[in-house]
Every structure is written in structure tokens, then in C-alpha cells.
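Record pair follows.
FIRST:
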Amino acid sequence: MHNDTERCVRAVQSKDQRFDGWFFTAVLTTRIYCRPSCPVVPPKVENMSFLPSAAACQQAGFRACKRCRPDTSPGSPQWNARADVVARAMRLISDGIVDREGVPGLAGRLGYSTRQVERQLLAELGAGPLALARAQRAQTARLLIETTPLPMADVAFAAGFSSVRTFNDTVREVFALSPSELRVRGAKQPQTPGVISLRLPFRVPLNPANLFGHLAATAVPGVEEWRDGAYRRTLDLPYGHGIASLTPRPDHIACLLSLTDLRDLTIAISRCRWLLDLDADPVAVDGQLRTDPMLAPLVDKAPGRRVPRTTDAAEFAVRAVLGQQVSTAAARTHAARLVAAHGVPVDDPAGGLTHLFPTSGALAGLDPEALALPRSRRATLTSLVSSLDDGTLRLGIDSDWEQARAQLMAMPGFGPWTVEAIAMRALGDPDAFLPTDLGIRRAAQELGLPATPAAFTARASAWRPWRAYAVQYLWATEDHAINHLPA
């Protein structure tokens, strides 16, 4: 979008929040970059330049605006709607892969050479993987400076910087303030020791009912819970574990993170945003779905529905198998038994969370006879965890959606419903579709949509590429717990 100058100018002059994260405005006279909705008086058109990422702005010598804080805008929705190498790379960079494994590790995950990855990112985003990771480190550092009392040296290493000097230089260059000055300017709020309090932004509208309702209704005891108006869950992270508490607010998601290692902060934030689908573009999604007269009343009634996802793709795949042909309550019971037997215990002074969901390695050696499941489903589950454990099957934010579908369909016990559920909620494909789901079939019958899966799928082609969001609106026609915020 940053190449469409006329459209960008209109967005800046109208201070349109919908375009925050789509592009950034670099002001040539002040050498400051802003989000489109910056509250200051817009600069003259001839003084505006538009860039695709904060990293590109920083690399070009611009510093972040102190008023609109462009580094905290929602992420670009492009990386949710695409599965090409650039989109997959951006999802991996957000998950901290460059800090942990370097650019070679990023390229290896994508199956490309480092030169190819750098060239494609530079062409589309104006910055290579190192610059993008550096911009993310600067944002993480700012969060730690403003929301914790940590010494600056601890902040530097927790944010991923190799030295305190590099940390100081980067903060001054990006924000035109020293770390100490940032801390003084930071919002004064009560701090709970060991807990980081954040505001996760999103594009409006956001309907929390189906999003948090689904997560709460399907929550696995010990791993997830709904408590005091917040969805809480344990997180298995690269350097340790954590607990996230997410509360819906009118203009943001209140996020409390308790981490055993602060180096996991960036990854934890990224996974919480992914879980709640916060980088979606609801105006584009709802606009497309409204073109169908069958869906338009559902969208108009409660716009802004998101797709409830997961923080761990492998975890969701296991849970999808456990949920085959059983009720939501039964699926929770099966999962809770696995958690109690094979999950790693954690301490949660603020609630009732007790375990991390077991890894595929922990489940690879389980005795199938100990599972209270039909024999065929035991075989499906053991085959799945074995493939995940030995690397034959890799599921994650960097997965190629069609390749992952083909691999899953080739495994015993995997049908279209299970594969599409994993594609929708674990892999994040916005066009995943569940025509055989019982709730979707009932909704289709009520709306007068085709009854057979083939005819229904053909009819739903008009909803592409947002069929996963159409599924949320169709599910909402039933009075089910997944559609309501818990009391």
C-alpha cells in the first residue's frame, strides 16, 4: 500500500486508524516517522514519504514519533492473509527466530538461502531480517523500560541486545531519548512484582464474544481458565515458561505476563496477538462477507469477529484429534487427562493453572492402552505425536498451508474436518472452511444455504479469502457457550 501515494495521503489527512500498521509516514523535514492516525497536524504532502515498515524508517534515518508511538501500532494484516515466503518470514521474525537462531536459522526454516530471504524482504519491506529484528528489539526494550523497574543492563539483555552499549545507542537512535529518559516519560502505574502489564492494540471493531467465549468454553483444565473476566493460560516458551492473562477492553486487550525468563517477552507478546487474531483487518473481512445477502445480516448484527487461534500449533493438532466426534466437554476431559499425566507442573499464585500442555516429545512414548479412546483414534494420536516428535510433520506459524494440509490428509484418521480445523486455528489460514461441521451445517440449513458439502463449498467461494471468518459468523447463529463471554 505504501506505493499508493494518493491513498496514503488521504489516510494520513483523515487520521484513519484502520491503516495503522499498513504503512508508516516519514516526515522529510523533521526526520520523524509516524503512524497514519498520528494526532499532530499532518505535514505538507511534499514533505511526506511512505515506507512499509518501522524497520525501513529506522534504516533510512527516521526516529519514532513521541506522540503516536508508531512502534506500538497493530501489525500488518498482510502477514495473516498470506502464506508466501515474506509473510512466513515476518511471522517467524515476530516470534523471535532471528534473535534465537540468526538469519541462517530463519532461512533454514523457510527452505531458502539467506541471500534469497534478504532480497525478498528488502524488496517488499525496505529492510532485511536483521533490521526488522532490531526494530522489534527496540520495541521490546521500550516495553521493559516503561513497564518494569528492571535495571537497564537487565533490560538490554532481556530485549535481545548483545551489549548495553548497543542497547543505549539503538534506543537513542530510534526514540531520540535515552533509556533513562524513556523511563521517566513512561506511564506511572501500579506494578506487581514479576508481572509485566501491557496494552495490546487492535483494529476496530473487535467482537470479544466469540473470541473469548470459544477459548473459555474449550479451555483445558490446568492449562487454561477463565477467571475474573480474563482468559488465562500457560505458555511453553523457548527460554522458560510463562502465564498470560488477557482481558478484553473497548480499545485494547489488557495483557498481564508472568515469565520465568524475560528473554521470552517478545515471543510471548507475539503468541498472544496470534492467539487473539489481533492483526486482522476487520473492515476488509466484513466488507467482503457483507456482499453476500445471506451473511450480511449476521455481520451487521455483530461485526468484528476474529478467529480464535492457539499459542502452539502442535498442541492444537493433538487437541483436534482428541475432539474428533465427541462433545466439547468430552474433548476437554481427554485433554485434561493427558495434561495431568504428561504435562510439566507450573506454579500459579494468581489462579488455578497447574501445567504446561505436554510436548510431542513427552507424548511420543505414551502407552496407547492408557488412553480412554477408541482404538482407531489411539492410532491417529500416536501417529500424530510420533510425526511431530521426529520432525516428519512440522506445524507452526511458518508452515506452508497447502503442504501441511497434504501431509495431514495422508495420515491415518485425518479427515477434512480435522485438517481444516488445524489449518484455521493452528496455522492461521484465513480461508480454512468446515462444510462438514455439525454447527455449520445447522446454520446453513437455517439460512437456506446448500446442504451437501460440495454444493456448500461451491456456494462459499464468494466468501474467499475469508471463509474462516464466515465460519465464526455461522457458528454464532447457535446459542452455544462458544458464542458468549462467560459470566
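SECOND:
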Amino acid sequence: MDMSTTSLSMEQQFKLQVLREQVKSLTQDQAQEYLIEVMRQSMVKENLLKHWMKNA
């Protein structure tokens, strides 16, 4: 993979910074639930990509 594939765009970097600020105010329980949901969504995305690649 080249750097353009693994680097974040300016917009993504901004969104990440906004998220950093937002998660600072979460309780530990909220942060754990948030992390679990992010992982779930990542797994769904991975499954969709695998399905798409298989049927392409």
C-alpha cells in the first residue's frame, strides 16, 4: 500500500481531532460501549467489502 492509501485526508484529520475532544468527556462505561460499537461497525464494513470483492 502506498502512503496515499494509508494516510488521512485533511477532512479526516479534522474529524479525528473533533472526535478526540468529544471522547474526553465520556465515562469509562460510555467509552467502552463506544469502542464496542466502532468495532462492530468495522466488522460489518469488512464483511461488506469481502462480499463485494467476492461478487465483483
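COMMENT: The longest helix spans residues 28-54.
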